[in-house]
Amino acid sequence: MSVKEIPLIINGEKIRSTTDTWLDVLNPATQEVVARVPMATKEEVAAAVASAAEAFKTWSKVSLTNRMRIMLNLQQLVREHTQELAELVTLEHGKTLPDAEGEVGRSLEAIENACSVTRLQLGEMANNAATGVDTYTLNKPIGVGLGITAFNFPLMLPSFMFPPAIACGNTFILKPSEQAPSSTILLVELALKAGVPVGVLNVVHGGPDVVNQLIEADAVKAVSFIGSTGVGTHVYNHATKHGKRAQSMMGAKNHMVIMPDANKDRAINDLLGSAFGAAGQRCMANPVTILVGKTRDWLPEIVERAKLMKVGPGTQRDADLGPVVSPQAKARIISLLDSGVEQGATLLVDGRNCQVEGYPNGNFVGPTLFTNVTTDMDIYKQEIFGPALCVLEVETLEEAIEIINANPNGNGTSIFTSSGWNARKFENEIDVGQVGINVPIPVPVAYFSFTGSRGSKLGDLGPNGKQVISFWTYTKSVTARWFEPDHQDGKDIHTTISMK
């Protein structure tokens, strides 16, 4: 059986790369090769940049209304292809089909936010700012945008990027992860079918050399990245060094605080879902819980429910979590879990030797739970990006807040409580950009911006909401005075700067 080859998309056409370097895309549940992805040549990358730069000359002049209509077409096509998109995500990423379908839904939210561009991309005006003078601002597209996305959300992350960028009048080059590219390619094909013109949206694949070439291209004006901290730091520094606007959403170590007055069943279920869903491969997962006071007595029940969670291939709808993305990812996760045991944490649930019947080659790691974790252990300090939960115990909410604020990351945190006083104290004193109150994964709906902070983010503006429009546009201020056709101003020369 022939293996599917992932195309480049340049100037509106699917192109077979001429490269001699192709990578296998594997089904994480079986290790079957399901596709091959090319590492684009320098010439192909240059062609994508040239296509986007040329298309910007005309696309930037298209009306807001017509750009909005294309986004409306895209959201309808994505909705119609939900099942096909989700199945491709499960095939290459490994997450369960219900979780993949949920990802399609979050992608739709981001696209629908881009449908609001006619309201979001508005300037301001002061009539008669001075006598006979009007001042107003125009939010103009900046040029060619670049998006670099991670493997863990191959639909949602691109949807955070190219729909708002092109809705604002920019053109775009997308560099998706080579580990799960098929659903991303289908999403781009749907965008072209929706009416995105030739050259406005391009896709290339590759590693560090391709990324650096794209960043360094003169036509590229802004770079958006979502992925690991190491790569994101390089992308941000390299982009800003070359004068580009940049944003990097990066790694995390999120914490959930459970207070004794919380709804017990809901808190435990949400804790386990947020820690182990998608096999922990979410930057917004909750890999740390802090049990406050008497909630430490809930630990046996937390352990028992964790042991009941079902591991299986993503196509098995009753599975709670699927495999991790690759053998390399599994090896890294197991190494970190081993270090937890070696450094003195107590292992109450051990998923290191997880076996799934009928899938002997799958990258499966089962739910894993540690207690007696200290903040100097590697399992606490590093982002495991696997189905592992570290449990800390404290006496007071103040101690929990102190632990979270001492952690360098700031993507998200949450508290489970029935006390409005506790919730308000937490939201005001916690130094983290996204806070959940009885919500385990505090990513807001897409018409609010993603506001991760501190070590989890580089750049002032985040994806989605109003901030995404600010990122993909620049503000042009116009000060205008119009005179009557027969106006005479005399011979006085004005040397002051005031306008009254």
From TrEMBL:
<keyword id="KW-0560">Oxidoreductase</keyword>
<comment type="similarity">
    <text>Belongs to the aldehyde dehydrogenase family.</text>
</comment>
<dbReference type="Pfam" id="PF00171">
    <property type="entry name" value="Aldedh"/>
</dbReference>
<feature type="domain" description="Aldehyde dehydrogenase">
    <location>
        <begin position="18"/>
        <end position="478"/>
    </location>
</feature>
<dbReference type="InterPro" id="IPR016163">
    <property type="entry name" value="Ald_DH_C"/>
</dbReference>
<dbReference type="InterPro" id="IPR016161">
    <property type="entry name" value="Ald_DH/histidinol_DH"/>
</dbReference>
<dbReference type="InterPro" id="IPR015590">
    <property type="entry name" value="Aldehyde_DH_dom"/>
</dbReference>
<dbReference type="InterPro" id="IPR016162">
    <property type="entry name" value="Ald_DH_N"/>
</dbReference>
<dbReference type="InterPro" id="IPR010061">
    <property type="entry name" value="MeMal-semiAld_DH"/>
</dbReference>
<protein>
    <submittedName>
        <fullName>CoA-acylating methylmalonate-semialdehyde dehydrogenase</fullName>
    </submittedName>
</protein>
